[in-house]
Design a protein that fits this description.
single chain, 5 strands, globular
Length: 150
């Protein structure tokens, strides 16, 4: 399959949201505020050079949203369409995002993966991301519309 990797724009939102909706694990990670069109537009304005889409023809088949605070980066979303998995697309998206982050002077990246998402955890391990067991992830929602999680 031929595809290109390019920067994400807000015009991609509908296609990206459809992609996220194509898989249960991605749907679990969405919230109605941050992942709305307005939330993603705000995110892309803050992170214009670190979010990428894999595009085959006119279809977005993969996407990675990464951003940083000037010190370290976070992978907020990585998704490849179920029909396009096991083709190296996710690894290429990760490599492209890592290179963009390096160009911005970022030295460390982290991401969050649901504990029971075995394929995703295996993928991140293959990409060289270690599992931190000495930290507790704490979460507080400042907006009633955003669930706090389990």
């Amino acid at each position: 399959m031929e595809y290109e990797i390019r920067l994400v724009t807000i015009e991609d939102y509908d296609a990206i949201f459809a992609l996220w909706s194509s898989t249960e694990q991605s749907r679990r990670a969405l919230n109605p505020v941050d992942d709305s069109r307005e939330g993603i537009e705000k995110y892309l304005k803050r992170n214009p050079t670190t979010c990428f889409a894999a595009v085959a023809g006119d279809q977005i088949i993969g996407v990675i949203l990464t951003g940083h605070d000037g010190r370290r980066a976070i992978v907020h979303h990585l998704c490849v369409h179920p029909d396009c998995r096991r083709m190296g697309i996710a690894a290429k998206l990760v490599a492209r995002a890592e290179e963009a982050l390096k160009q911005e002077g970022i030295q460390k990246i982290f991401g969050l993966v649901f504990r029971d998402n075995d394929p995703a955890n295996a993928f991140w391990e293959e990409q060289g991301y270690s599992l931190r067991t000495n930290l507790n992830y704490r979460n507080k929602s400042l907006n009633e519309a955003i669930p706090t999680g389990e």
